[in-house]
Each structure stands twice: as structure tokens, then as C-alpha cells.
Amino acid sequence: MLASFGSFAEYRAYQYMVKTNDPYAVATKANAQYIVSTLNPQMYKSYHGGNFINVDLLRTWICPGYTGRRKPVCDHPYDKETKL
């Protein structure tokens, strides 16, 4: 007999503050962006700009499920508590 068990997938989400390292960029508050991604800090930096951006990790959490089919990244658990 074969038993079929449901599989459980999870992934890690990261929140970053991303700034440009370009000395000629206009210094405004819009220069910094808050980004949520499934890429770890090293992969995010190399994929999105290398030495031209500065990536600061703010927080990380585990999400249930998977990111296939352009599924959005889940919200941080603390954000859910503050929305109640």
C-alpha cells in the first residue's frame, strides 16, 4: 500500500532598505526604498546592482507555501497583529 502525504513547503522572506551608492544621485528621501524579497542579501545585491547599491537587512521571517506562479510574498507576522 502506498500512503500519500501532503507536502509542506516554506520559504524565507527578507525586508531590505536599498540605497544607491551613486555619488551623483540626487540626495532625497525617495532615494531609500523598502523592498521585500525572497532573495538572500548577497543574491539580492548581485542580481539588482552589485556595488552600485547598498542593501541593509531589516528583518526576515518564514512564509508557508511557495512563490511559484508569481505568488506575492507573505506579510510579516507582526504586521498581521498590528492590523487587527
List keywords for this structure.
84 residues; alpha+beta; 3-stranded antiparallel sheet; 2 helices; 3 strands; globular
Question: How would you characterize the overall build of this protein?
Answer:
This protein has 84 residues and is α+β, with helices and mostly antiparallel strands. The chain has one domain (10-68). The protein has helices at 41-48, 77-83, and strands at residues 10-20, 33-37, 53-64. A three-stranded antiparallel β-sheet has the order 2-1-3. The chain starts with 9 loop residues before the first strand and ends with a helix. The mean pLDDT is 82.
Share of helix, binned: 10-25%
Using only CA atoms, what is the Rg? 17 Å
Overall mean confidence score, pLDDT: 82
Overall tally of domains: 1
Shape, per Cα inertia axes: globular
- Unreliable runs: none
User: Mind describing the biggest β-sheet?
Assistant: 3 strands, antiparallel
Report strand %.
Answer: 25-35%
Structure class: alpha+beta
Strand arrangement across the biggest beta sheet: 2-1-3
Helix and strand succession? EEHEH
Number of helical segments?
2
Number of strands: 3
Distance between the termini: 46 Å
SSE layout and pairing:
Blueprint: E1 10-20, E2 33-37, H1 41-48, E3 53-64, H2 77-83
Antiparallel strand pairs: 1-2, 1-3
Can you describe this structure in just a few lines?
Helix content is 18%, strand content 33%. It has 84 residues and is α+β, with helices and mostly antiparallel strands. The longest helix has 8 residues, at 41-48.
